[in-house]
Amino acid sequence: MAAPAFKNALVRWIDHRLPVFTFLQHELHEYPTPKNLSYWWNFGSLAGIVLVVMILTGIFLAMHYTPHTAFAFDSIERIMRDVNYGWLIRYIHMNGGSFFFIVVYIHIFRGLYYGSYKAPRELLWIIGVVILLLMMATAFMGYVLPWGQMSFWGATVITNLFSAIPLIGDGIVTWLWGGFSVDNPTLNRFYSLHYLLPFLIVGAVLLHLMALHRFGSSNPLGIDVKGPQDSIPFHPFYTAKDAFGLGIFLIAFAGVVFFAPNLFGEPDNYIRADPLVTPPHIVPEWYFLPYYAILRAIPNKLLGVIAMFGSILVLFIVPWLDTARVRSAKFRPTYRKFFWVLVVDCVVLGYVGANPPDGWFIVTGQVATAYYFFHFLILMPVLGLVERPLPLPHSISAPVLKPAEGKA
Amino acid sequence: MAEAATATKGHADGETRRDFIYLAAAGMGAVGAAATVWPFISFMNPSADVLALSTSEVDLKPVQEGMSITVTWRGKPVFVRRRTKAEIDTAAAAKLGDLPDPQPDAARVKKPEWLILVGVCTHLGCVPLGQKSADPKGEYGGWFCPCHGSHYDTSGRIRKGPAPKNLEVPPYAFLDDTTIRIG
Amino acid sequence: MRRLISAAALLLALATAAEAATGPKPSAQHWSFSGIFGTFDRAALQRGFQVYKENCAACHAALMLSYRDLRGIGYQEDDVKAIAAEAKVMDGPNDAGEMFERPGRPSDKFARPFANDKAARAANNGAFPVDLSMVAKARVAGPDYVYALLTGYGPAPAGMTVVDGMAYNAYFPGNQIAMPAPLNPDGVAYQDGTKMTVEQQAKDVVTFLTWASEPTLEARKQMGVKVLLFLIVFTGILYAAKRKVWAAVH
Q1: Residues A21-42 pLDDT 10s
Q2: pLDDT above 80 for C102
Q3: Nearest to C3 among A91, A280, A344 (CB)
Q4: B65 and B36 within one domain
Q5: What are φ and ψ of residue C161, in 5° steps?
Q6: pLDDT band, residue B7 (cuts 50/70/90)
Q7: Contacts of B18 (CB under 8 A, 6+ apart)
Q8: I need a surface site. Which of A321, B119, C62, C229 has the fewest CB within 10 A?
Q9: What is the pLDDT of residue A399?
Q10: Are residues B15 and B100 in the same domain?
Q11: Phi and psi angles of residue C100, each rounded to the nearest 5 degrees, phi first
């Protein structure tokens, strides 16, 4: 790695002793990136920015929040009413959580469509799944903090999942609660962990970036960069593209924060937590609904919990479940169709999760759950072996295919 | 279309327009970032409920001559002292030239009998002694700060020690003869 | 594509089925505070506060409100002081160690009608009068629902028996509500000549309750318009910058 020649003498002095500027130059400026990335590749950097926004607003909210069952609800309302711009920072944090999941889910589906998890990027993908799990834990605990009805009953229901574990389940639940129900000790530890986990996410994101920069970004064609003609420096090309994408994202985000801030929320969470009254219809936050549907699709408690966790854990082995020789679904006509079936399947699961488990919803939920696992565990390995992919272009710079070949 | 037009106009024009767009983008980014910072700074300032509590009413009836009471205002102690004739006279007699922070006693009270002070040493914020009869009152018979040895007189003016200023007089008003409102 | 369409059709069918299972949907009212540029109608807010004070406050607390907040519905500082002073607030302990009652101050929270939740329940036949400061936010379609509830009283349909001490309400879950119809025609004396129908009172009090649940609504929408305008222009410029940068590649 040849050190770049910096003009500024102070920069040179520092860089000679601590090569941060060389590092930034290599990883953010020169970093060769495939020239054909589409806007679907914006969501990675967007997710990083949303993470920063969440940590920043979260640190400020913590300055006025009181983690005690007697004061938590009131302290949030005080932030909303009396603290200067408290409503703004709280609504950004609250909706930022939802937007974080929107961005990350798109990022994940992009990876699935374009086979971004395939060798040599298996670890990159696995770290990504770890980030997803950390995000889910953080979001779940954060949702408890306002101490509304949904906070309380969500916490009760989700922690009770662990009681499905044979023999030690009840002991684990008591341990999680620090008592015999969700109460002040639970709220306190959730607050502590909700503050901690985002920094673990930052650590995981850095590893994610390290793994990414080892082989560089994948691309819509799924073929490797073959030479300098295929790639362009990250700056200014992708900084400019990411900045524009960020602008679009901020418009959508501001639209919700300022004009529909409770769009993703449940009205019940504006009722103070009452340990004696369960709301008639309790649902988790929207981003957990598909998993919730999988949990309820299976009549057995333990198996339901296993299926729910399994639906995320299965993502860890996706790099090995996919047996196809090409990366991108662009060249896999059959797989491409099933990819969209999976997207619809996840939406259906989400819809089922939002509704009471009776009548049609039970059957629909079970079919959708079955398809979810079928897709990953059977379809992916089998289709990879039997499907004949379309011919790949020779390089990123020359992706032109003859129409006749495209139809094959 | 616009780009094609610029391209044909030649190098110089293209450069200007490109520079303008980059400058506009960077400028708006800077403005946006600066505007975003303000809510966060403001967030840490006193909130509406804290500001609303910034007045306190004090009933003076139970305070005898020579006695002091301590009340709270904005979370700080406020000394209310009903001064004796002798204390008023010593305070009035002090020569302004001897004072580190010259201020006549008359400018520090509304009624000479009642001295109202924020009970926070102007050095580093400790609460001076002198409210209880058993407390050391310092060399000038007023208050004595135990943290770094500042002596205040019977008008709450600094006379000796590291404190730079007299004890602060809070804004207050007599609602009637025996009630004041601080703040 | 065909799969997508059939999935969408399935979703639609499910949605309709789900809706039929619940009670009547509150019809959408026109509110001064809805929409991007929505602001609270100050006159309606003050009338609504009057309705709240005279008809609701005897049983329902508004825990999140302070008297000083009433500046936000157009009252001047002296009005607020006078309104606060009408209330009796428990304070103390005094120097003798005793709690005492004093007239309210603007910095006080709205006085509660009952000392605590159990007292509220005991005085109301076991039914708890909910806190009203959040109710417009704490119900699905909050303002429309509260309006529908307040105007939804009437005789029970044939075949339905209403338990003693309960009233029939078309919009309350289960249709039986412990609160008797709270609003009556001419039940409050409006000062500004507005007709004192039940519908008008309901509309005014819902406006007030919506403000109570989110006093910062106007500030939020006004800032939102500015932020969006800024972002749209900024994003346009970013797009132009991106095109310029990429002109060399395409």
Answers
A1: 999 999 888 999 999 999 999 9
A2: yes
A3: A344
A4: no
A5: -100, 130
A6: very low
A7: C244
A8: C229
A9: 55
A10: no
A11: -145, 160
Give the CB-side neighbour count of residue A79, counting CA atoms within 13 A: 27
Return the CATH number of the domain spanning residue range A286-386: 1.10.287.980
Query: The tokens of A256 are what?
Result: 């919700």
Confidence of residue C17 (pLDDT cuts 50, 70, 90): very low
Tell me if C27 sits within 8 A of C148, measured CB to CB.
yes
**A214 has pLDDT over 90:** yes
Which of B18, B36, B41, B43 to mutate: most A Cβ within 10 Å?
B43
pTM of the model: 0.89
* From B159-173, C8-22, C80-94, C96-110, the region with the lowest mean pLDDT: C8-22
Please indicate whether, in this complex, the C-beta atoms of C4 and A344 are within 8 angstroms of each other.
Answer: yes
Residues B125 and B177 in one domain: yes
- What is the pLDDT, as a whole number, of residue A329? 95
Question: Are the beta carbons of C220 and A258 separated by less than 8 Å?
Answer: yes
Cβ separation C245–A237 shorter than 8 A: yes
The residues in C 44-83 lying below 8 A from A, measured between CB atoms, are 63-64, 69
Q: How far is B18 from chain A (nearest CA, A)?
A: 13
Kindly report the CATH number assigned to the domain that includes residue B120.
Answer: 2.102.10.10
pLDDT at res. A398? 73
Omega before A120 within 30 of 0, i.e. cis: yes
Chain A positions touching B40 (Cβ under 8 A) are: 56, 60, 85, 89
Asked if the C-beta of B49 comes within 8 angstroms of chain A's C-beta atoms, the answer is yes
Instruction: Give the minimum alpha-carbon distance from C12 to chain B in angstroms, rounded to a whole number.
Output: 41
CB A323 within 8 A of CB A384: yes
How far B47 CA lies from chain A's nearest CA (Å)? 4
Give all strands (DSSP E) within B67-171, no chain letters. Answer: 68-73, 76-82, 114-118, 141-145, 150-153, 158-160
